[in-house]
Amino acid sequence: MAKSEERVKNAEKLVERTMKGNDASHDVSHVWRVRDLALSLAREEGLSSIPHSMEIVELAALLHDIGDYKYLRDPSEEKIVENFLEGEGVEESKKTKILMIIKGMGFKDELAGLVNGELCPEFGVVQDADRLDAIGAIGIARCFTFGGSRNALLHDPAIQPRLELSKEHYMKKEEQTTVNHFHEKLLKLKNLMKTKAGQKRAEKRHKFMEEFLEEFYQEWDGRA
């Protein structure tokens, strides 16, 4: 087995071990989907012809949700990915790229203006893959799964979505409804895609969410 294949297998084992207790919105199946999407987008974007790019994309996609602030059980978990890459003997230049991709993935960092326009091409495909999994039919299912895991209300017309969000507001655990998450984040993702391949795929998923919400509001009000 080639070294890169062995690293991928070990990364898969780490994902299964560390994300075992997560709810189904951020579980191992989410990671496998993001990995598959990222590799597919990378091929469409021509990264398969760049040495080491596909390995960087695959490892970053696999490891991107380990140590997610929403699921941190212990501060030491933030170091798991770094320690893993060091233990696997990943070359410094690759390791730096992988960690930079993971660090810059979050919507909260984009809200804070922390996402740099000079990022490597691998970053765009991994972030777009993660965001594609947050929209469309899968995105809807994940959104309500996460809301249910936090006992959030489905919808309350009296609670308005926070449309001008800062990073601090977004991370704050104030009462919000699951449906408002579509307006606060999910419907914004189509216009935040970094790659042409990601933008193209986001169109259909975005439209599906808009149609779902239209139907949801009609049914909520007894109009459908």
From TrEMBL:
InterPro entries: HD/PDEase_dom, HD_domain. Gene3D superfamilies: 1.20.58.1910, HD-domain/PDEase-like (1.10.472.50). Transmembrane segments: none annotated. Signal peptide: none annotated. It holds the Pfam family HD. It comes from the Eukaryota. CDD domains: HDc. Residues 23-144 form the HD/PDEase domain. PANTHER family: HD_PDEASE DOMAIN-CONTAINING PROTEIN, SUPERFAMILY HYDROLASE, PUTATIVE (AFU_ORTHOLOGUE AFUA_1G03035)-RELATED. This is HD domain-containing protein.
